[in-house]
Specification:
Elements (H helix, E strand, L loop, with lengths): L1 H14 L9 H11 L18 H11 L1 H22 L6 H10 L8 H34 L6 H11 L7 H14 L14 H12 L1 H4 L16 H8 L1 H6 L4 H6 L11 H13 L5 H21 L11 H6 L3 H8 L10 H21 L7 H31 L1
């Protein structure tokens, strides 16, 4: 590490003001702080100092979503290999089949390594395109504005990839992350100033712009000619009994070997990652608790109302927790420290609103069984307003107390 430190220090003058590469100082800073904690420290009030800087916070979140990513790669490969076996195919199509045959991995759905490798070949291209295109926009805005490259994109990139179907065309991946980074973040000033989660904004853009590639029964398993509905879609169509009849128990849905986006099918992996971000103080437990409270309360309300035509009215809350992207959205999207509320009371209101809206969208809107994505974006819009009224209420309370 000392050798790397010396090499970085040796080229630093090139990027300082007056240096021949001073226009690219953002790139130098990005590499330097990727490996080393910045030497600059704040010594005077009113700044708050902490031993963990923003880059290390982002790394914690990145590590926390790894259980979802690893399980998602295995799950994608598992369903692909199972579909290949069910359709009687000899192997995967295209370069993935060529590479898997070259490596001698095989397509046995009972072989964890074969499933992981097959899923990895779908995860990697999407992640590489996301990093390349999104990173390009991040660096471009940093160079034009003359500020540091924001490390928040590392988190945005992995979250964005994990909420996409494995079959998403790469050019759509590029369009989605472009919308998320440029429109939802950089136009508002970059990291710390965006009011909307960039990963979710990019996913929402793709959902409304290209609904055929983002939803339906043919997008979850990357094998041509194979179709299958997600457990949430089955529940929305015929109720929880149909989900159980299809061979999916609640525990199956909790562990995650079911069809869905790349990294959001395992509620267990989401809980593990959620515990990491809560324990390290990166995420607010109040938001997570409020989302659960809002979801349970609204679900029980719909359970009491009931319906003879809509089976989602009767879906129990513990099934809502394990179906779709609820657990992933609650742990990693709703708790985004930038786009969520900043006050403790505001976090309770913000989280409850997300839980409430998720169930309303899932139950009342039969054409859109998933609701957590739109619910979080909806709450992001109101987060500043919620904080404003919470602060004003605190001010009025103190004024009355000191009158």
């Amino acid at each position: 590490m000392r050798f790397l430190r010396r090499q970085i220090d040796r080229i630093e003058p090139w990027f300082q003001p007056g240096g021949r590469l001073s226009s690219y100082s953002a790139l130098y800073e990005m590499v330097d702080t990727l490996f080393y904690t910045p030497a600059d420290t704040t010594r005077l009030a009113p700044h708050a100092r902490d031993a963990v800087d923003l880059k290390r916070v982002m790394i914690i979140v990145f590590i926390a979503v790894m259980p979802c990513a690893v399980f998602g790669m295995w799950n994608t490969g598992f369903h692909a290999n199972a579909a290949i076996a069910e359709l009687g195919l000899s192997g995967a199509a295209g370069w993935r089949g060529w590479l898997l045959d070259l490596l001698g991995v095989g397509y046995d759905p009972g072989n964890a390594f074969a499933c992981f490798m097959h899923g990895l070949l779908y995860f990697l291209p999407i992640y590489i395109v996301t990093m390349a295109v999104g990173g390009f926009w991040e660096v471009l805005f940093a160079l034009v504005r003359g500020h540091e490259v924001n490390e928040g994109f590392f988190v945005t990139s992995i979250l964005y990839v994990l909420i996409l179907p494995a079959t998403t065309p790469l050019w759509q991946v590029a369009l989605g992350i472009t919308f998320g980074v440029v429109i939802a973040k950089e136009l508002f000033g970059g990291t710390g100033k965006n009011f909307m989660n960039p990963a979710l904004a990019g996913r929402a853009f793709l959902y409304f712009a290209y609904p055929i590639q983002m939803s339906g029964d043919a997008v979850w398993v990357p094998v041509d000619g194979y179709t299958g509905a997600t457990a949430l879609a089955v529940a929305a169509e015929n109720g929880v009994d149909a989900v159980i009849s299809s061979g999916i128990s609640w525990m199956d849905a909790f562990i995650g070997p079911i069809q869905g986006s790349l990294g959001e099918t395992s509620a267990l992996a989401c809980v593990i990652g959620g515990l990491i971000v809560v324990y390290t103080g990166v995420a607010s437990w109040r938001i997570i608790a409020a989302v659960m409270l809002g979801m349970i309360t609204t679900t029980l309300l719909f359970n009491v109302i009931g319906s003879d035509t809509n089976p989602m009215y009767a879906l129990p809350w513990h099934w809502h927790f394990v179906l779709g992207g609820f657990a992933f959205g609650m742990m990693f999207m709703a708790t985004d420290p930038v786009s969520a509320c900043q006050t403790n009371m505001g976090r309770w209101i913000f989280g409850f609103l997300i839980g409430f809206m998720t169930i309303v969208i899932r139950v009342a809107n039969v054409a859109f069984p998933e609701g957590i994505m739109l619910a979080i974006l909806f709450a992001n819009i109101f987060a500043p307003l919620i904080d404003y009224f919470v602060v004003r209420a605190n001010v009025r309370r103190r004024e009355r107390r000191n009158a």
